[in-house]
Structures are given as C-alpha cells and as structure tokens.
Amino acid sequence: MDIRITKEVENALLEDAPWGDITSKLTIDKHQSSIAHLMSKSDSVACGHEYFLSSFKLLDETISIETYIPEGNWVKSSEIVMTVKGNTRAILQAERVGLNYFCHMSGIATEVRKIATLIGSTDCKVVDTRKTLPHLRLAQKHAVEVGGGINHRMDLSSAILIKDNHICAVGNIYDAVSLAKDRSPHTMNVEVEVTDIDQARSAIDAGADILLLDNITPEQIEKIIEIVPDGIRTEASGGITPLNCKAYAETGVDTISMGYITHSVKSADFSLEFED
Amino acid sequence: MDIRITKEVENALLEDAPWGDITSKLTIDKHQSSIAHLMSKSDSVACGHEYFLSSFKLLDETISIETYIPEGNWVKSSEIVMTVKGNTRAILQAERVGLNYFCHMSGIATEVRKIATLIGSTDCKVVDTRKTLPHLRLAQKHAVEVGGGINHRMDLSSAILIKDNHICAVGNIYDAVSLAKDRSPHTMNVEVEVTDIDQARSAIDAGADILLLDNITPEQIEKIIEIVPDGIRTEASGGITPLNCKAYAETGVDTISMGYITHSVKSADFSLEFED
Amino acid sequence: MDIRITKEVENALLEDAPWGDITSKLTIDKHQSSIAHLMSKSDSVACGHEYFLSSFKLLDETISIETYIPEGNWVKSSEIVMTVKGNTRAILQAERVGLNYFCHMSGIATEVRKIATLIGSTDCKVVDTRKTLPHLRLAQKHAVEVGGGINHRMDLSSAILIKDNHICAVGNIYDAVSLAKDRSPHTMNVEVEVTDIDQARSAIDAGADILLLDNITPEQIEKIIEIVPDGIRTEASGGITPLNCKAYAETGVDTISMGYITHSVKSADFSLEFED
Amino acid sequence: MDIRITKEVENALLEDAPWGDITSKLTIDKHQSSIAHLMSKSDSVACGHEYFLSSFKLLDETISIETYIPEGNWVKSSEIVMTVKGNTRAILQAERVGLNYFCHMSGIATEVRKIATLIGSTDCKVVDTRKTLPHLRLAQKHAVEVGGGINHRMDLSSAILIKDNHICAVGNIYDAVSLAKDRSPHTMNVEVEVTDIDQARSAIDAGADILLLDNITPEQIEKIIEIVPDGIRTEASGGITPLNCKAYAETGVDTISMGYITHSVKSADFSLEFED
Amino acid sequence: MDIRITKEVENALLEDAPWGDITSKLTIDKHQSSIAHLMSKSDSVACGHEYFLSSFKLLDETISIETYIPEGNWVKSSEIVMTVKGNTRAILQAERVGLNYFCHMSGIATEVRKIATLIGSTDCKVVDTRKTLPHLRLAQKHAVEVGGGINHRMDLSSAILIKDNHICAVGNIYDAVSLAKDRSPHTMNVEVEVTDIDQARSAIDAGADILLLDNITPEQIEKIIEIVPDGIRTEASGGITPLNCKAYAETGVDTISMGYITHSVKSADFSLEFED
Amino acid sequence: MDIRITKEVENALLEDAPWGDITSKLTIDKHQSSIAHLMSKSDSVACGHEYFLSSFKLLDETISIETYIPEGNWVKSSEIVMTVKGNTRAILQAERVGLNYFCHMSGIATEVRKIATLIGSTDCKVVDTRKTLPHLRLAQKHAVEVGGGINHRMDLSSAILIKDNHICAVGNIYDAVSLAKDRSPHTMNVEVEVTDIDQARSAIDAGADILLLDNITPEQIEKIIEIVPDGIRTEASGGITPLNCKAYAETGVDTISMGYITHSVKSADFSLEFED
User: Fold this and answer.
1) Confidence band (pLDDT; 50, 70, 90) for E5?
2) What is the homologous superfamily of the domain A3-112+265-274 according to CATH?
3) Which chain F residue is nearest to residue D233, measuring alpha carbons?
C-alpha cells in the first residue's frame, strides 16, 4: 500500500472512531465474520479502489477483498464493484470511511468523464485546479486523472502561475512575467493569467510559456489564439460548465480548467450490502 | 487559536506549498505589503472565519484581519466579509487555502440554512450524518451548526446507532437493541434504524431510546410516530431533499438527517480582491 | 493490530529507547533467541494483552507469543500468562514497556473487579471518570471494562455533564440544564451534578436526563432517589471507596463512579522470566 | 514553553476533547470570563506547574496565571497554589487535563519527599527506575527530582545496566560485564545487577563501575559493601518501602531505587475552585 | 517563522535533547543570561539565518538576536554574523543545533558561490540535484539558491526527468519521451538524459523539452548543442567539478548540475563565542 | 524493521515524492518488473544496508533484495553489494532515497575506518561528536560504529560534558565541575573540556571523571596525561585530521574525537544499475 494513502486513510479511520466502534462492540460477536458487497446505486465511473481497500485492510489485515470492476470503468446501478470478506466488527467500522472516499472520488471521476466525453472530438484536455478540499488533494487529483482529465500543478511549489493578484501586486503583466522568466528554474515554465488580447500580447512579449485565458468568451479566446505563436500553450478558465465546455474546447485552446469538479461535485451513490 | 484547527490548517498549508510559493518568491518583493478583501460573489451564509484567519496568521503572525460580517450572517454578492493586511507574499500563499475552507464551509452553512428555513414552522431540526469528507469532519460539522443544524454523533465512539448491517449481522432487531441496552454506558442512548412499523415495535419493546426511520414515506412515518411512546426520540433519513423536507418535518419527527449537506454541497463563491 | 494501540505502543517504545538498547547490543549476540514467560507474582485480574503483545511484535514481527490466560481472567501468583519466543535482543528491549502496560492495566482491572464483586448483589454498576492519566485514557478505560466496570464518557466531546463549575459560571442549576437541553444533539443526554435534594428537584424540573449525586451520604441519596422519576438515571460520586461502596450501591443508585481506580491504583506485580 | 512539554500537553488536551467541550459550548457564554483557584485539599509537595499552566495557555494564550507556591514547596490543605483568570469556556475545558497532571505529579513528589526525609540523615539518595507509566516518563522523572530524588537513566539508550535477564542470556555475570566494558563508549559506566556476594566479586573483577544490589537484605548489603573498592558505586533495589528504606540507606549504599514511586503512587488531592 | 522550517528545527532540537540538557541544568543558574556571538572562523558565504534563529527562539522566545551580516553575504574570518542575548541555559542548549544548520548551509552556499563565480562570464547557471541528504532537502536547496545557484526539481512529483534507468526499462529513448510527452500535464516539460548525439536526435524527434547531457565531454556537448533547436534547453551533468566547470559552461549549455554540492560539501567553520 | 529507521525512511520517501513519481507513472507499465544491482563505483566500506533496504520495502513489500556484501565490509569498485528485484516503478521511485542514505553512510564508515586503521597500533579509539547533520544523527552515528569508531554521547540528555561556554558562564572550571559532580545521577560521569595543564589540575581536583583535551598539541597532551590519575579517562579533540591523528593517538589519550567525520565527509560512490 502507498505510504501516503496509508497515512491518510489511517487518519480518516481515527477521525471516525477515536475510541473504537461502540455499537459493533456491544452488538456483534468478536469472532463473527461476514461477506459484504460494494454495490452501485446509480451509474458512475468507479474510483477510489485503493482508498476503499485500505480502509478495511488497515483495521484488519486478514480481511480479503475481491475486485470485479477496475478503477476507471463505468459501473451501472446494482452492479457489484468489490466484495469484502472477514471480521464483521472490522467491516462495520471501516464501512463509512471506505464509502466516504469511494463515493466522493467516483463522483469526481464521473463528472470529469462527462466533460472529457463532451469535448472528446477536440484535442482539448480537461484539467483540475488548486480549488480542492483541504487534505483531499491527492485523492481528488487522482480521481480527475481516473476520469480522463489531466492534473494541473499539484501545489504552489511545483509550477509557476502568475495570477491577477500577482500582477496587481507587481503593477503590470510584462514586469511580472519578466521577473519570473529571469529567475525560474530551467525545468519550469511560466504561466500567466490574461484577461484580454492586450495582456496576452504583453505576456507573449515578456516570454510567457503558457497563457491562462481567464473569464473570456470563446469568441475572444479564438481571437487571442490567433496571435499566440507555436510552442506557447493555452488554458481557458472561469465559468466553464458542461453546458459551454464544448464551445471553449473548439476554440483551439489546449486545456480547459474547472474548479467545480473538485469543490462542488455530487458524490456518486454506492452502499455496502451485507449478505444475509 | 484552537489547537485542532491550527493543526488542520497547518497541514492544509503544507499540502498546498510543500516547498513554498515559487511564483510569489520570483515576482513579489519580500517586504511588499498589500490589502486584500474577502468578497462575496453570491448570496450565502458566511462560515469558516477561524479557518480563513488561521490560514494567514499561521504563515505570518503580523498579518492583521478585520471582520465585518460575523460567522452565521447572510452576506450578499459584492459584500466584503473581512479585510486582510500584511506581507504580500504571505497573503498570496495563504489565499487559496483560506478560500478553499471558506467557500466550502459557507456552501454547507448556506444549504443547511435553506433547509432550516423550510422547516422553520415545525419543531423538527435538521441534523448531519457521518457522510462527511475524510479529514473535514470538524470543519463540516461546524458549518452545519452555523447553518442552523444540529450535529449528529461526531464519530463511531460517541454514540450508539444500530444500522441495517448490524441488524443483519445480529439476526434481528430485538436482539440487537437488547444487547446494546444491556451493556451500554449510562450516558448513552441506543438509536436503531427501522424501516417499517413492525421493526419500530420490536425496537420499542427492546428498549430503544431513539428510532431512525430510514427510507420511509412521510405518510408511513406519521403512522409509526403514533405508536412511539413519549420520551423516545425519532429521526427520519433517506432521500430527504429541499423539495420534500417540509413534508417530513411535518410528520412530527424530531429530526431529519441528510447526508448530501456534507458530501455533495456546492461551494459558495468568494474571492480575495487585492486593492490596487 | 489496532491502529491506535499500535501508535501508542510505538511511541512508548521510542520513549524508552530513542537510540536503541545499548546494553543488549553490547552483551547479546545479534542472532541469539530466547524463551521468556510473563509470570504473575501476586493474584490479580490479567489485563493488557494486546499492549503487551504489540510491544514485542512491533520490535520484531517474527517473535511468537502464546497466551495461556485470557484477558479478564484471575491469575494466581506464579502462574504463566503468556510465553514469548524469539530474538533475545528484541525481547529484552520490549520487556519493560510491555510490563509497564501490563502491570498498570492489570492493577486497574483487579481493583475494579474487587469493587464489582463487592456490589455484585445490587444492580448498581461501577464506572470510571475523566480522572485518567494523560495519554493513557484508552488503556485505562479498557482496563476498567475488563475489570467489570462501565466506561463513563470517553472525553469532553462525547457527552454532556454539567458540573459545579459550570453551574457556578451560569449562576444556577435550572438555567444551566435548560440551556443544555434546549440545544443538545438528539443523541445526547444531559447529566448534571447535584449536591442536595433541592438541586435535584431543579435539575429534574429543567429536564435533566441523568443526576450526578456528588459528595452526598448514602442516606441522603436514598431520599433523593425517592423523588427521581422513572427514566432518569442516577450516578453517585465523591469519596466512594471499597469500604463504603456497598452502602452506596444499595441506595438504588444506577452507577457509582470512582476516580481513584484510574489515578491512584497500585500496579499488579508481573515479571518476565527467561528460561535458562 | 518547553517544546516537548508543549507537545505532550497538546496531545493530552486533544485526547480529552477531540471535538471540543460540548457542555461548556451549550451552557457558557463565549465571552464570559472567570477566576479560579488551584486549591490543595490535603498536604503535599506541589509539582507540575509548567504542565498545569500549559494546559490553560495552549487553549487560550490570553489566560493569565499567578503562582503563589513554587514547585517543590509543601502546600497545606486549603491553600491556593495558583490563580487562573480568563475565558470561562477555556478554563473549564483545560481544568481536568491540568489537574490530572498536577495531582499525579504532586503525588509522586510528595512520596519521594517522604522517602528523602526518612533517609535524610544518611548520604544515600533515592532514585527512580524505568517502571514509569508509558508516555509519562518526562513528567514522572521531573516529579521525582522535585521531590528530592535523583533520576536513574532516562531510557535504554542512555546508560548500560546489565540485569538478570541479560546475565541469563549471556550465561554468566563475568562475561556479561566484560563484553560491556570492552565496547562501551568512554562516557558510559557499566552497571550490573548482582544478587549475592559471589556475583558482586565477579562483577568487580570484570570491571563493573556500579553494582545494583537487587533483592538483598540490608545485612547482606553491608557485607557486600565491605568488599567494594573505592570508586565503585552501589545501588540497592527490590522491595524497598518507606518502612525499610532507612535500614537500607544506613548500609552505606549510595542510592536506593524504588519502582512504586512512579507506578503505584496515590495522586495528591487538588481541585479548581471557581470564584462566585 | 516558516511552518516547515519551524517543524524541522523543532525536530532537530528534540533529536539533540530528548530529555533536556543535563549539563546546563546542573551547572548554570536557571535565571542567568548571557551574550554570545556567532563568529566566523574562515571566509565563507553566510547562510542559514532563519534556521539558526529558530533554534534559539523555539527554545525560548524571549531570546533576542541581532543580525549584522545578511544571508548571502561573504563573511571573513573573525567577523560576527549575529549576536544572541538571553537565557544562558537556552542558548547553551540551542547552540549545537543552530551551528549544525548554519555551518552546513554556509558550506553549501560557499561552494556554490565559488562555482557561480567561475562560470560567471557565461550565461550558464549552476543547479543542484536530488542527491541531497535525507530530511535536509529544503535547507540544502535553499543554500544552493543563496549561493547563486538555481534549484532543479524539488522532488519526483514536480518535474519529469527520464533517466538512464527509465530508458532501460522502456527499451529506447524515443518511446520513453513519446510516452511522457503524450500524457504530461500542460505545465510540465519533459527532460531526458542522453549520452550521445544519436540519443539527443531521438529525444528531439520525440519532442523532448530539455536535454540532460550526462557524462559527456565538453567537446561532445558542443557538437550536440549545434543540433539542438531553439527553445530546447540543455543541462550538463556527470563529473563536473570546480576544475572543469568553466569548460562545460563555455560549451553553451544552459545549466550544469552537480551532486557534490549537496552530498559531499565541507561545512563552513563558525562558532558561538560567549562574552565573558 | 526498526521502528525509528522505518519512520525516518518513510519521511525521506515522502520528502522525495510528495505526490508520487510522475516520470515513472508516465513511462513505465504498472506491472513491469526489473532487476537492479547496487554497484560500487569506488573502494569503500559498505554501510546503510537497513536504510537502503527499507527504502524499497516501504514502497512495495513484495520487492526482494539479496545481499552479497554485509555492512562493514570493504567493497571494491564494480562490485555488487545487493540485488533488488521487483516492480519497476517502485524501484525507480525508491532508488534515489536508498542511494542517498547508502552513499552518505558508506562515506562516513570509510573515513572512520581510515582513521581507525591509522591509529590501529595504539589503544586509542576514534569517536564522533554532536556535530552531526540535523535529522541524521541515528544514521551517522551508526555509520561511525560500522567504520570502527565509538559513539560519543547521543544527545545532550544522555551524558554530562562541560564545555568552554559552560565554564565561561559559571566563571571557573572548578566550580563548574563541582556543581555537576554534586548533583549528577549515579550512572553518569562528568566530562569537562580543558585547554591547559592548570585547567586539567582544577578539573581533577574538582572530581572530573573524563577530561576533554581541546585544541592542545600532542606534546602538551603527553604532559597533561602524566598528571592524570588512573581511572580518569581522556579525550583529545580540535583540529585532529588523518594527517595528525596518529601523533595524537600515541600520546596515550584514550579517545580522539573528530567532527568532520559526520559534518564534512565525502559520499561514497554507488549507483543502481538496471539489468537490460
């Protein structure tokens, strides 16, 4: 099991049962064992297998889990994704943590798959943002990938992205980009947020590697892309939804980024069904 | 600052900038200072003040923050909730973590307030569940309270709730409740999930203190409540939404619990606007 | 192994050997193996099996341990509880930590068993308090259960108990109870400390679910219990000892709580005897 | 505040209130402030000031604490040791953790002071052992010092002590001591447990620096000490109690060590009294 | 103070004094205060100010520190960099940890400055590698920057670098680069290690953004650079030392990376001198 | 695996790959497996086996490792120390962390072995200091032992060493030693730094157990040793190098301590070679 996922799931288990599971302790025999099925209650992209599995294994390493539907596959309502066998108390204690991860991650993967499909006829890719929920970035970004998206920078340390507030603090876009280009590590590109064609020109002149076209209509994006030289990548963001994503993707932009796929997504519906 | 919130926000800050904020380091002077406003971009219940504030204070304790709209108040679009003053690099580094907490928590508080208002003419209370996102239970349950809801048990250790899978493992509801009543601490009640009037009768006979009426229509709930003696509390759950919550509340049930308010809620829209 | 017990025992092992066990490293061959017996040196209730076992297993997972006397059983002086086989250095390093847990937990279980036996002819139960030693609550409360007691609330978050200082801060008992009842979660009861029959009446009138009868003589408790309606539970505390516990239990009170069983208990006497 | 004490008290506070103090939240106004006195309810040596103080300061750094009786002083029943002023909720939440440390540490200091006084006419010193309660070694060993004792080794890494089980594993005492002397760091002495005069001779011949005279009568100890050359220190242990400690001290042994002062001591009685 | 540096220095302090500083406790009065100077004993680039300062401040926040020579400046032998004033025990306890950081980081900064100066007439930059000492990456990479170098990727997660072992596992360089280019995030470049001109051609054809020219002579590098199109960056590595770095830099390569500056550097010599 | 080493290597792995290894994820098939050899590229003493092994095992417990050359043995250039077999992605991710430990520890062991050999004709031992790199004390001190050295005190808590700054703060050496002797635990010796024969006399008169002869020429040390009574150990330090260590060792001093073997040592050269 992955070191970091192990630590995260351990903490989630301790958050949910700091002193153990009193209900199971009072009602279930210590040695009883059960079989339970992770069952889908709606159509979705299954995601979160390692988190689900770790929730059970970390409580009792003798629990066995069989997987029928691999991560990333569509699952229909009433289909069984995995079957869990082992100590009843441990299964009951792990159930909610395992489901909380699985339903949330599958919800994200499903939403991203929907967007990816909508723009599938173009070369444009859907990417995530740093608008993830605290402590869940690893799980959420993984779900975006499983859904068919691409991960934007994982954190503030791993890529340069000059946003409106940086530009505001520096004074103008040209200087901000120049400062970054001048001293950036050779492995890094400089991405900069622009909101109109003039800013785009300044950014290009200053040596920007990637333009983040923020809150601009598809029509305007098309015009800006016309002046963007080869080798400079483009990303559109701001108010992109399933309804308008295709229009954005068809502008020729390389990527569209959406915050809602990590901060406002509906959980997929799965439950753990015990065999009688 | 609260010990636990401090630890959670510290971890969120480290998650978002394991090696610092390279963009700000390259573009912003170390000693520059700025003023920035937490501005609402839609109507919502403001929530998450301590998390937002800690995000900045933990990066730089000399940052000062003035609060105009206290937690729990409605805020209209374009209103300023707080103003942040201090070192520009620190503000830029803390911005996203602070907003990620604030937008998510305000989203929950707003949704709960909506439900609380819809059922405001009854004595019924809205409560949350354990369907919270991993590592966010403290923040999410706090937002439910701020919204006007009541917290269900915080974790598996702090209350007894016999669910369908426990009953399945024990064999029948009467035995499950009896086992729990027999050995439960004197401070704890025994709550049990029932799905029809016969189960309710068995649960009452076995001494249950609280009935969780799961996936039952309001009409059926009314009939069950007729047979529930005084002193036994009732909770309805399963498929309750803003559309049908009033019908449930009017059955006379003491509480309605909803999972979606913590696992599938839309973030409220706030941004941090720098003064020029 | 339980996640939380594992973490606690790991920390105890690191506390006792931050840089390893230099004596064993200097005197014992790296590959030597030994057999050692956990032997009782007095009569007591054996308790702490998982802690003892984890102390050895966490240092060397190839150590094997056979258990002869299960947790909760009486063990006589000179009886062997468990036998440990494996690497000598690891056994010597784990020995003290394992014994420190086992002797302390068995000491508590033995004392609680004594009280439980003394009041065994009544329906009254012995319960613990929050007067546990820091970082040892899980282990100590477990030992109370093994001894035959019931756990009071695990922590400040999991039950409501209005004590003298709360009443002092609020001003009077009626208001304190009313405030709590008015806003308490539906899963929780309100327990309140009362010191005479008038306070008991006020508490009952305000809706208290449990009365904590603190520092009152058995005679007075009997009088108070006469006015307590069915459904309200009672707990006696304050100066209850093995000498007077039966008198308290016979008053009809539901539970008696004692702090000394966790904060002032004598360790049971066990040692680890190496086979020649 | 000391880094390690801060971490330990933080963990103790989180252990006692993982989700906050619901009773105080429901009954006490957020902005109320109180004055409370740490009052002795029996005669004892006051100990644990920094732990007590940290319990409050870590929850609310604006709480002020005045100290009247310094650590190590005798306090009589009904005397006030410290006065705490500040936010009522924070004081109520910290109270039990602060008292749990203070009562336990004062109990140890008082017991050690009693022994130190009993043997005060000799040059013998009372020392502690590694029979401390898990996670409490720092606090307990500090209390031993405050009581007038001397700390034995803090852990397995910081001194060499060859015990019966090491000798059993090596085969004989001479070889065990020789192995240790041969390879021990120049800063370390080699202490070895002996149970009769022959073992003492072998230990001395092999170069032992310190003899641990375990489970030997005072009369026998006197005879052994006669053959111990200058420069070799001696320690008596095993069954030493307040009743016989003077007899041991008068044998001329340098130190007597006692496990019960850390594993089986009675808490001192202190309470926190709120001003009306 | 930076959250991560604070955590790292706290751990370093606990590593060096798990139970406090017994020498200072035994010899120095608790209330004594001293003045001590961080003095250079050789010529070097001063580096590690925040780590040095935190070592003292974390032990006692009332210690004051005055800085005369800012980070990055050359300091001559016998010059004073900072002056520390405050509690003597705290200064003595923090001294070694503060010096261990400062001497190591200054050693790195000095070595990097030397290289940067040697290649100062070219546009080539000196960069570090992932050959840092475990747990010291943040401090070491900071020292490289202070010395005048540029940081290569901070970790395996923040940039793509296909090395010989990846190529070996994939089978050939073209496929390895193609796989990476095809699925890499839009913010990331693909860097690939090449060892001759044929590999360089394959890498360029496959779309590599950066070429790592490993273990190649300056003469060969010049030839390879001739075929490298504009926009593709180059890095030389392998056996580059102060003696040959200028020859590498003059080939026209963009950066030269050296492992020895973090894994085999000599500490700079500083001591803490107490005022009499 | 050792608890502490496990924690340290886990943290090193997370430091090097907070979000996983993107290069391997993009280029290597998830199920591919490889064989790789830890090969020496120069002559050195092999050291760090458990750290190297843990780096791989912690990422994937199914990886198998065969060891050909045990810790402490000389290895020649091009010899294979261990062979690693298993999942390719896991091997590639663990490679650098494993090598960073192994090269650094082998570098230390090699340097210490060199010194130990140089002074091998005397009874003098080489010892380390507290001048270790932060967070690496356990690994570095282990390497010193493997090289043939002896560990000085592990930390400030485990031995008493009065240095120049203590003496400066106390006022004179006699008082400093007397204070320490008077109150030191019976297991501990008092070591004190002296810089000339007069200080040595004062230290001896005050009862010092060990003299640290700091920054004195071999000739002067010989003179001081003449006046040192039997039973008092001696340590030389300050400017001792491979060039002059034999002269120091031949003075009759018991130990020579050197800081550079932990703070300024050159890494040994090893690489991980994949089989085609």
Assistant:
1) very high
2) Quinolinate phosphoribosyl transferase, N-terminal domain (3.90.1170.20)
3) F186
- Backbone φ and ψ of B132, nearest 5°: -100, 165
* E212 vs E160: CA distance, rounded Å: 12
- Asked if residues C90 and C32 have their Cβ atoms less than 8 Å apart, the reply is no
Question: What are the pLDDT digits (tens) for C224-276?
Answer: 999 999 999 999 999 999 999 999 999 999 999 999 999 999 999 999 999 98
Contact F235, F127 (CB under 8 A): yes
Tokens for C225, please give them: 């219990």
Chain F nearest CA to E209, separation (Å): 14
Residues 6+ apart with CB under 8 A from F182: none
Which of E 45-104 lie inside 8 A of D, CB atoms? 58-59
Strands E160-162 vs E190-194: parallel, antiparallel or unpaired: parallel
Spell out the residues 6+ positions from residue D212 whose beta carbon is closer than 8 angstroms to its own: D161, D163, D191, D192, D193, D194, D235, D236, D237, D257
- How far does the CA of residue D12 sit from the closest CA of chain F (Å)? 23
What are the domain boundaries of chain C?
A: 3-112+265-274, 117-263
- pLDDT at residue A1, as a whole number: 78
Query: Given CA atoms E61, E67, E71, E77 in this order, what sign does their dihedral have?
Result: negative
pLDDT reading at B1 higher than 90:
no
Q: Is C16 on the interface with F (CB under 8 A)?
A: no
Distance in angstroms (rounded) separating the CA atoms of residues E270 and E43: 10
The chains in contact with chain D, meaning 3 or more Cβ pairs closer than 8 Å, are: B, C, E, F
Give D70-129 pLDDT, tens digit per residue. 999 999 999 999 999 999 999 999 999 999 999 999 999 999 999 999 999 999 999 999
F254 DSSP 8-state letter: S
Which residues of B are catalytic, by number?
Answer: 96, 131, 163, 193, 214
Q: How far apart are CA F250 and CA F255, in angstroms?
A: 11
Q: Are D223 and D201 in contact (CB under 8 A)?
A: no
- Asked if pLDDT for residue C1 goes beyond 90, the answer is no
CB atoms within 10 A of CB F60: 16
Instruction: Reduce the secondary structure of A141-206 to three states and give it as a string.
Output: HHHHHHHCCECCCCCCCCCEEECHHHHHHHCCHHHHHHHHHHHCCCCECEEEEECCHHHHHHHHHH
Burial class from Cβ neighbours inside 10 Å (0-12, 13-18, 19+) for residue F192 reads buried
Give the per-residue SS3 of E201-228. HHHHHHCCCEEEEECCCHHHHHHHHHHC
pLDDT of residue D27 exceeding 90, the answer is: yes
**Residue A252: its pLDDT value, please?**
97
The residue whose two tokens read 């300023």 is B80
Q: Which residues of B touch E4 (CB under 8 A)?
A: 14, 18
Mean residue pLDDT of chain D comes to: 97
Residue C189: count other Cβ atoms within 10 Å of its Cβ.
20
* Contacts with A13 from chain C: Cβ below 8 Å: 3
Of D85, D82, D88, the C-alpha closest to D40 is D82
pLDDT digits (tens, 9 = 90+) for A10-29: 999 999 999 999 999 999 99
pLDDT, position A276: 81
Chain B residues close to A139, C-beta within 8 Å: 134
The topology (CATH level 3) of D117-263 is TIM Barrel (3.20.20)
Residue C12 CB burial class (10 angstroms; 0-12, 13-18, ≥19): buried
Within 10 A of F216 (CB to CB), how many other CB atoms are there? 23
pTM of this prediction exceeds 0.90: yes
Q: Work out the pLDDT band at E154, boundaries 50, 70, 90.
A: very high
